[in-house]
């Protein structure tokens, strides 16, 4: 058992996830396209994930952002089997977000619907050839940043994502804020800067979400990224619910 798994078993993911005020999360997602969940992971869990970042055997690939025009910094995609803490959160959080995703798609007249259980959705991804796991850890140093983007990995894309800040602002790093932009038709983009503490999670729309207008609902386009790190080191756990091709 690795350090992350040992810490996680103290409070199972299912229990901590069930204690979240999901009605408030859903309301914030509808209003702003994102919602903050405080204390999703504890200090020891965050530290254990950071400490294991150099263990390449846990990951299927490493991406240096600057080589691809994504910004500056790097990230690693976990390989299967995922660490217990990551698999536990992915499995426990998904059922609370699937109804939101289905409601949004119905409003936006998008045909895709998502099953109640994450295992069933992953089987759908794998049948379509999307078999590579997508949870990842991102690492930034002073001067690094992540360009605004959308995480779209194939035909089957889950429209909501989870990111957890593993480092402590003010101690481990400065700058490096999570940023979202929202483009509404015939309007200028709206920016949202999301303050996070260590262990806090942000749940956010990956691509589109519906907004109610005077003539009915319409679709807005979202992107997310990270502003320039002023100093230190910043690590984030990203939990993406669909797998990649």
From TrEMBL:
Named from the GO MF annotations, one term is: oxidoreductase activity
Keywords noted in UniProt: Iron, Metal-binding, Oxidoreductase
> Pfam families attached here?
Oxygenase-NA
Q: State whether keyword Cell inner membrane applies.
A: no
Recorded superkingdom? Bacteria
Q: PROSITE patterns from the xrefs?
A: FE2OG_OXY
Membrane-crossing segments per the record: none
- Transcription recorded as keyword: no
**Fe2OG dioxygenase domain boundaries:** 131-244
Q: Which family does it belong to?
A: Belongs to the iron/ascorbate-dependent oxidoreductase family.
Protein name listed in UniProt: PF09859 family protein
